[in-house]
Amino acid sequence: MVPVYMRWIVIVFLAWGVLQHLIKLWFTLGYHKAVLYNHQPGPCRVVPGVEHGAEDITTLPNGLAFISSGLWLPGFPHGRSEVRGRILTFNYSDPESGVKELNFSEEFDRENFNPHGLSVWTDPLSGRISVLVISHQRRKDQVEVFTYDVATETLEHQETIRDELIYSGNDLLALGPDSFYLTNDVSHGARGSTLARKLETYLLLPFGNVVFYNGTQARPVAEGLVFPNGVNMSPDRRYLYVGAGFTEELRIFRRFANNSLEQIESLPLHSFVDNIEVDPQTGDLYIGLHPVIGKTPLIHYDPWDPPGAQVLRIKNAVRGPDITELFVNNGTKLQGSSVASFHKGALLIGSVFDRLLYCQVRTL
Ligand SMILES: *[C@@H]1O[C@H](CO)[C@@H](O)[C@H](O)[C@H]1NC(C)=O
Ligand SMILES: *[C@@H]1O[C@H](CO)[C@@H](O)[C@H](O)[C@H]1NC(C)=O
Ligand SMILES: *[C@@H]1O[C@H](CO)[C@@H](O)[C@H](O)[C@H]1NC(C)=O
Ligand SMILES: *[C@@H]1O[C@H](CO)[C@@H](O)[C@H](O)[C@H]1NC(C)=O
Ligand SMILES: *[C@@H]1O[C@H](CO)[C@@H](O)[C@H](O)[C@H]1NC(C)=O
């Protein structure tokens, strides 16, 4: 027979543990930052023609940006049937022309295309441009590989990559036409139930990972992350950057010749980290973050109390980081900033389900 006081001690300890977790969750979801004061790096305007998100953006050195638009996940404010998966381009040398929608080659299943992270790889010999996009299909995730035909502005579908280890893809970084790093944000993605996904999220379980796909098969290269998100690398290809969403950090890994990783640094950023873009000339990082992730559809979206937006620039990420906040908005101009891409004094800021902003950067 357990004495009564022992039972009370156990109950008090359990209650203390639960209380501690709830307090941690409240801070992790950003509810203590409910008030955001707006600032921007120069004039910003909405780019017409984007209503259902610009979740990811990648810009080529010539100033041509590729944008994935029309991601849909349960809990999003728009209905599934209203949203159409599209890939757009934006030319930084001709910003007045706005976005152009790329057409797909005939055989591609555009109806079920649900694009999330995208990455672009240019063949150094032929100049051929490959566009790799994560697509959430019904109960499975896959990576669609296209080549971009400049003349016809068409994406020619090349192949669909599926692998046991690609199940909750968030972002990817192409190293070739069919090799890439990819983040799985949770362990219960397309193959799991909504309840399992929610439990994993609310318990902040470190079951996310980074995998490397070598053209035939994926293997895990980093594990134990809580909702890993954006992935990118330094221009010299020596370091890999991964946004660790719920732990609000930028993880920096050293890359080995066999594409394995070793973590060398973890920078606290104090907001939920989404996609990471790297300026090919300077190596500076441009990051889209969610200051109050608890107000986004990942947790709970309320149009009358919208999530805000935030963009950071990091110089010298590996040796003595210098972090500047370029943009913050309380949700009136932009909700749920997922990505920021910089080219020659201008910034495109994309969002998970909202609009696309084009800002001039005059404060740097
Ligand atoms: C971008 O715009 C510039 C200036 O109008 C033009 O010269 C260039 O060809 C455009 N690039 C693409 C890929 O359309
Ligand atoms: C897009 O591609 C389809 C099939 O290849 C073709 O039928 C259609 O005309 C194209 N649309 C545009 C706007 O080029
Ligand atoms: C790809 O990775 C798998 C599993 O790690 C390995 O068996 C295979 O040899 C690799 N293929 C290439 C082309 O490197
Ligand atoms: C990759 O290379 C590193 C360093 O040389 C080594 O420690 C590691 O075991 C290798 N990993 C694989 C999967 O071959
Ligand atoms: C957000 O900022 C705008 C512009 O300053 C202001 O008009 C609006 O009331 C603010 N909204 C909230 C919810 O704070």
From TrEMBL:
Record's catalysed reaction(s): a phenyl acetate + H2O = a phenol + acetate + H(+)
Q: What protein is this chain from?
A: Paraoxonase
Q: Which domain of life is it from?
A: Eukaryota
Cofactor binding annotation: Binds 2 calcium ions per subunit.
**UniProt-annotated binding residues for Ca(2+):** E55, D56, L118, N170, D171, N229, D274, N275
- Gene3D superfamilies xref list: TolB, C-terminal domain
Recount the PTM note.
Glycosylated.
Which GO MF term does the entry hold, naming one?
metal ion binding
Listed cofactors: Ca(2+)
Transmembrane ranges, per UniProt, are: 6-27
InterPro entries given in the database record: 6-blade_b-propeller_TolB-like, Arylesterase, Serum_paraoxonase/arylesterase
Give the active-site positions: H116
Q: Which gene encodes it?
A: LOC118405499
Output the SUPFAM superfamilies linked to this UniProt entry: Calcium-dependent phosphotriesterase
Q: What is the lineage of its organism?
A: Eukaryota, Metazoa, Chordata, Cephalochordata, Leptocardii
Q: Which PANTHER family match?
A: PARAOXONASE (PTHR11799), PARAOXONASE-RELATED (PTHR11799:SF12)
